[in-house]
Amino acid sequence: MFRRFLKALHSEDRGQDLAEYCLLTALVALIALGIIVHMSGGMQAVWSGANTSLTAGSTAANVSPGNADSNTKAPGH
């Protein structure tokens, strides 16, 4: 009876494809995660540069020549 069970266990391979696909999916996910982690420093630099440019542009747009002169005038003038 135990031999019959082992023989059935050995010859039963219907779930093998599912296990292989799961392992392949896990491998692809790990590789993708590694690539994302490796590239995250570069992406952070891109976003930081864009943020700096936007902040500088916003600051420059908010300070117009007319506003700068009115801020330097003495009170009461």
Helix content: over 70%
Q: Which class do the helix and strand fractions yield?
A: mainly alpha
Amino-to-carboxy terminus distance: 107 Å
Mean pLDDT: 77
Report the radius of gyration as a whole number of Å. Answer: 33 Å
* Helix-strand string: HHH
Strand content: under 5%
Count of β-strands: 0
Which descriptor suits the 3D outline? rod-shaped
Count of DSSP H/I helices: 3
Major sheet details: none
List keywords for this structure.
single chain; 77 residues; mainly alpha
Can you offer a commentary on this structure?
The model has no long low-confidence stretch (mean pLDDT 77). This protein is mainly α and 77 residues long. The protein has 3 helices and no strands.
Summarize this structure briefly.
The protein has 3 helices and no strands.
List the helices and strands and how they pair.
Layout: H1 2-11, H2 16-62, H3 65-72
